[in-house]
Amino acid sequence: MKLVSLSQVSHLLYPGVTLAWSVRDANGTLLLAKGHVLADERAVQTLLDRGMFIDAAEIAAAAAANRANAPKDESMSGRWSGLENRLGTLLKSSTEPNFLQKVRESVVSIAALADGNVDLLIFLILRHDYKRVANYSVVHALHSAALCSLLTRRLGWPEPKRYSVLGAALTMNISMLELQNNLAIRTLKPSDAERQVIAEHPTVSATMLRDAGLADVDWLTTVEQHHERRDGKGYPLGLTDSTEMSRLLNFVDTFTAKHSPRAGRTPQPAHRAARDLFTHSGGDPLAALVIKEFGIYPPGCYVRLASGEVAIVVQRGASANAPIVAAITNKNGDSLTQPVRRDTSTPANAIAATVAEELIRVRVSVDRLYDQKTNR
């Protein structure tokens, strides 16, 4: 029996949860059987403080059972939309009894998406319909958490650490959600009172999480420091030594804001936003990860091929400049009845240029683009 610390699954422990595995002491002696219900936050914290253990095989079995029981008939885009809808209500209810439990459940769902079709997830982030800008705060939180999940996966961070930064991404702005939405739909600059709210929101959001019962130090610290910068020009404290998790979230927060349109401001293309982020970070390796994850032509990017066809990138290729695309028009600009896959590593289908989104007149649903039956 291989025992691992209970702290590795602390993100799955909350009041009212039914244990999916047995809890043991350092010698493997059974203390709490699988199926035991943790009554309250004190019971959860007592387990963690006592340094209990679980069988690694039981963790793997529980994870496999969760995957087996996941709905098979719902598309990834459907699960993504469902997450956005649920978060729209959840993030505004931090005083509700099950708030943290539901945030943790959302974190697990986002991590599962990132462990699936990464190209599709990037596509869903970049091709979001920002006409619904009044929901900006929720979309920004979801996109930030999803990107954090992709980057922490690339970094190989252990699950508890990944989940803490995802939780921070979802909740970093819970104290100013409405203000975020208002600023996204208006061209006026923030008032002095609004600037004060913005300056204080990392601290206030962390306080709201503590009041909700959150005891995850990494999560709380990441929220408190997600606007700090190494040059000391961040806020609220002007720190120069913020944590690695905080720096990662800062870069993700900045990147997602850059490629998201707001009233009076057009979005930057993802590849340009990533490049600017890296430059302004002083070459920070964590900022470089965004470029590595998205590539030169990320899924969701519109391009013109050497053939004259206009296509949309659907999959990163073996090399950064040769992704797999789906042609949506012929060389004359006429829309195709069905998207056709093209490999841009071949000279005839090589990418000649990117195409601005506002010039695209043909719209194709994500489910059609990622349907396995799409012509190749």
- SS summary, helix count: 14
* Silhouette: globular
**Rg:** 22 Å
Taking pLDDT < 50 over at least 5 consecutive residues as the criterion, the unreliable ranges are 372-376
* Strand portion: 5-15%
Strand order of the largest sheet: 8-7-6-5-9
Mind summarizing the main beta sheet? 5 strands, antiparallel
Could you tell me how far the N terminus lies from the C terminus, measured between alpha carbons in angstroms? 48 Å
**Structural classification:** alpha+beta
What proportion of the residues is helical, as a percent range?
40-55%
* Average pLDDT reading: 86
Order of helices and strands: EEEHEHHHHHHHHHHHHEEEEEH
Number of strands: 9
What does this structure look like?
The protein has 376 residues and is α+β, with helices and mostly antiparallel strands. The chain has 14 helices and 9 strands. The protein has helices at residues 41-49, 56-69, 76-90, 99-114, 118-126, 136-155, 159-171, 177-184, 192-211, 217-225, 244-258, 270-280, 285-294, 366-369; strands at 3-5, 23-24, 30-32, 53-55, 302-305, 310-315, 324-329, 335-343, 351-354. Strand 5 (302-305) and strand 6 form a beta hairpin.
